[in-house]
Amino acid sequence: MTTTTPTIRRFLQTLHPIAGFGPAELDELAHKTEIESLHPGRRLFLRGHRDPWTFYLLDGKLLLEWSDGRSETVSGGEPAACRPLNDAQPRTATATAVGRVQFIRFDTTLLDVLSRAVGPDSYALEEIGADADEPRQRLFYAIFRDYLADALTLPHLPDVALRVREAVQQPECDAAEVARLIQADPVLAARMVQVANSPLYGVQTPIYSCKAAVMFLGLNTTRDLVVTYTLHELFRTDSALLRQRMHALWQHSVLVGAVSYVLAGMTPGLDKDRALLAGLLHDIGALPVIDYAARVPELGADGALLDEAIRALRAQVGAMVLRQWKFGGEMVNVALEAEDWQRDPVQQAEYGDAVVIAQQLLAADADPERLVAIAQLPAWRKLARGRLDGELVGEVLREARTDVADVLQLLG
Question: What is the average pLDDT across 155-167?
Answer without folding.
Answer: 93
